């Protein structure tokens, strides 16, 4: 069909009869008006989407022999509203559908949908609601104008609903042998299509677009465009063993049948997976409630459930009403207690809908006991590992709220309190005469109110110092020091200092360290504790520093990390205000251990050394050198300042330095150099590689430029000294050097 611009299109249009004085009206005209009105209302129904609007809850009654459906409203794929005005009991006997084939309201033919055609019935059924019509028993007079004998005929065509039973065959659902306790869960996930889509969370673009039993029944036309699924149930022998609504019940979902949505983008932007994840949570909680009602509270999750939702909860009992035992339910599952913000529980559940379900007995689980309101039942929230918003908790959790007036008294409580803690720093200026010290704890979380929480240290390099804690998270605060004296015991302290902490995370913080005539301090320091001269403790850390703003004083360090197993420093801004008095170093990763280092997408300005990654240890005799394992330096912007050297000790200077590394990639970095008069001819490397190097050495697509007329980096910008034997050549390509 071709049309010109602004041409009207009347294909399959709405046709309302044209009424005018003198027109002879017939039943056909009125039926045409009915058909047009019905078509328009179906457009609205299709816009709302297919599903249950409200009500239509299904339960077993009368000794588990019949099904009861409460009043409610649904919309089928055709757009018909299916209204059940009152609670109805349905006997489990199949009858022929009602309908008048001459009516515009005629329903779909559903008789064929119930034939098994040789398939073996499993005893499992799907209950759907469908539209129905009939001619009323109320009569109206017939005038006999069309040659008929005068008499009476039916006054109304009534539109109602009927319930459809679809037996599930052995092709639809493979029933486990015997009386397997996980049968209901397996049927629910056959309906949800979990086995077909699990594992596609990391690659949603290639997830299947049609999956699950409902899609299959629609394809087979056993579930038609007239039908809305309400529940699946088991009926054997002559008794309803269970009813599961949420395996198939869905809220109204627009675009569900639009083929343009059934493509790869659906998994990324469509609502179906979100709706199904919510239905799965409701299905699990309802099955749990049914088990509890039947007295089955001593169950093992892996025996009863094929999958658990990524977040759910176990009621643990109240008064004389028993609940589920966490240790029994997850007896074969790795558990970890976590501390959560109570006010963030809803946010955790909302996030969980985007995660794959939990396989009990296989996947690790985090748990969080909830202290319910007075008189209410307590419960335990369980989560897929990684969904929790803070560290783990073993001996309980406690939240301490500090404000500028009570912080010293609170530190005493913290020191004598429980091991796993969450410290909330209220807004205000914390005038610190000594650091906030947290030591010998389990898992620690410290949060503030962004720049509104300001830790101001006047007598020490550190505003916050954490020592000997299993893990620590610091986020959303501002801290600064006003002194940078010679470090005690040769340790460079940071405005935030972490010693002997195996896991350290710093996010969304703003930090400042003051300048000094020598290198004495850093904004962030993570290091083992020094036990004696040239000897550190054996603690190796996992460190993540992300989305922070650091202001580094003259001759000081932005980030100093020593002995790390895994390091990720990304999306930070590190600035020294004055290019004539630059920071000594921006990011330093050193010590004797650096197994996996990732320095990504940071912005560094006015540094004498930008990024410095190298490992070594003090030794009295030569031995096997320490080496970095894997190193990625990608997407960083570095503005190097090379000031006048008068009155200043200037040794190494470079944009990026790597020493002793098995495998490294330096890619897509931008380096600029600002020289001054007295350093116009002094050597300085853009990228300097030195030491014992492994097979993979990649330096590509970096841009090295001069910021002033005094010139750029020396020796063509990139300088490699490989001490290995044999020497593997470095891959250098597409670097732009000015």
Can you walk through the features of this model?
Strand 17 (365-370) and strand 18 (379-384) form a beta hairpin. With 738 residues, the chain is mostly beta strands. Residues 94-101, 103-107, 109-118 and 390-398 have low confidence and may be disordered.
Task: Name a few traits of the molecule.
738 residues; four-stranded antiparallel beta sheet; mainly beta; 28-stranded parallel beta sheet
- Low-confidence segments, given as residue ranges, are 94-101, 103-107, 109-118, 390-398
How many angstroms does the end-to-end distance come to?
60 Å
The counted number of beta strands is 48
Helix share bin:
10-25%
Average pLDDT: 84
Supply Rg.
36 Å
Q: Helical region count?
A: 10
Provide the structure class.
mainly beta
The profile of the biggest β sheet is:
28 strands, parallel
Q: What general outline do the C-alpha atoms trace?
A: elongated
Q: In percent terms, what proportion of residues is strand?
A: 35-45%
């Amino acid at each position: 069909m071709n049309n010109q611009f602004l041409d009207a299109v009347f294909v399959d249009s709405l046709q309302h009869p044209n009424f005018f004085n003198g027109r002879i009206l017939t039943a056909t005209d009125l039926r045409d008006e009915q058909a047009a009105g019905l078509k328009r209302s179906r457009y609205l129904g299709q816009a709302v989407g297919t599903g249950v609007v409200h009500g239509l809850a299904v339960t077993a009654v009368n000794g588990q022999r019949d099904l009861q459906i409460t009043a409610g409203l649904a919309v089928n794929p055709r757009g018909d509203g299916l209204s059940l005005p009152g609670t109805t009991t349905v006997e489990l006997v199949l009858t022929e559908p009602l309908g008048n084939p001459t009516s515009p309201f005629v329903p779909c033919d559903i008789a064929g949908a119930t034939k098994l055609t040789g398939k073996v019935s499993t005893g499992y059924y799907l209950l759907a609601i469908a539209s129905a019509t009939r001619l009323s028993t109320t009569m109206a007079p017939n005038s006999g104008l069309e040659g008929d004998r005068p008499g009476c005929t039916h006054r109304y065509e009534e539109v109602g609903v009927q319930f459809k039973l679809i037996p599930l065959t052995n092709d639809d659902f493979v029933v486990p042998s015997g009386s397997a306790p996980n049968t209901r869960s397996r049927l629910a996930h056959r309906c949800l299509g979990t086995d077909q889509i699990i594992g596609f969370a990391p690659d949603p673009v290639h997830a299947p677009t049609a999956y699950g039993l409902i899609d299959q029944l629609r394809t087979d036309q056993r579930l038609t465009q007239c039908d809305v699924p309400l529940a699946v149930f088991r009926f054997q022998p002559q008794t309803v063993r269970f009813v599961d609504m949420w395996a198939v019940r869905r809220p109204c979902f627009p675009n569900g049948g639009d083929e343009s949505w059934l493509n790869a983008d659906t998994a990324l932007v469509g609502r179906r997976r979100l709706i199904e994840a919510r239905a799965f949570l409701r299905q699990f909680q309802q099955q749990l409630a049914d088990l509890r009602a039947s007295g089955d509270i001593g169950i093992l999750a892996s025996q009863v459930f094929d999958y658990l939702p990524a977040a759910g909860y176990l009621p643990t009992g109240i008064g004389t009403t028993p609940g589920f035992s966490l240790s029994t339910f997850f007896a074969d599952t790795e558990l970890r207690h976590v501390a959560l913000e109570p006010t963030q529980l809803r946010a955790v559940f909302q996030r969980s809908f985007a995660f794959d379900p939990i396989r009990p007995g296989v996947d690790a689980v985090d748990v969080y006991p909830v202290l319910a309101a007075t008189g209410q039942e307590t419960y335990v929230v369980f989560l897929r590992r990684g969904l929790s918003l803070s560290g783990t908790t073993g001996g309980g959790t406690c939240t301490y709220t500090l404000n500028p007036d009570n912080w010293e008294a609170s530190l005493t409580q913290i020191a004598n309190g429980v091991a796993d803690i969450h410290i909330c720093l209220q807004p205000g200026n914390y005038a610190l005469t000594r650091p906030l010290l947290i030591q010998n704890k389990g898992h620690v979380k410290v949060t503030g109110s962004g720049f509104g929480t300001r830790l101001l240290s006047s007598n020490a390099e550190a505003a916050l110092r954490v020592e000997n804690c299993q893990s620590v998270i610091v986020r959303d605060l501002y801290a600064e020091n006003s002194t940078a004296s010679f470090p005690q015991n040769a340790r460079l302290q940071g405005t935030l200092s972490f010693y002997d902490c195996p896991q350290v995370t710093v996010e969304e913080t703003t930090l400042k360290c003051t300048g000094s005539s020598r290198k004495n301090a850093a904004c962030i320091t993570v290091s083992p504790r020094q036990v004696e001269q040239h000897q550190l403790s054996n603690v190796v850390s996992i460190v993540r520093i992300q989305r922070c703003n650091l202001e580094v004083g003259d001759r000081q360090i932005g980030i100093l990390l020593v002995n790390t197993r895994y390091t990720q420093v990304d999306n930070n801004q590190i600035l020294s205000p004055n290019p004539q008095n630059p920071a000594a170093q921006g990011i330093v990763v050193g010590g004797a251990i650096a197994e996996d280092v990732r320095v990504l997408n940071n912005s560094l300005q006015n540094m004498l050394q930008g990024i410095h990654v190298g490992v070594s240890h003090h030794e009295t005799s030569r031995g096997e050198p320490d080496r970095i394992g894997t190193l990625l330096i990608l997407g960083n912007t570095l503005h190097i300042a090379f000031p006048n050297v008068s009155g200043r000790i200037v040794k190494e200077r470079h944009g990026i330095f790597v020493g002793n590394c098995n495998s490294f990639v330096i890619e897509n970095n931008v380096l600029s150099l600002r020289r001054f008069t007295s350093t116009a001819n002094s050597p300085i490397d853009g990228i300097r590689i030195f030491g014992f190097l492994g097979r993979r050495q990649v330096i590509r697509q970096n841009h090295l430029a001069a910021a002033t007329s005094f010139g750029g980096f020396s020796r063509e910008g990139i300088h490699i000294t490989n001490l290995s034997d044999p020497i593997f050549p470095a891959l250098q390509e597409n670097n732009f050097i000015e």
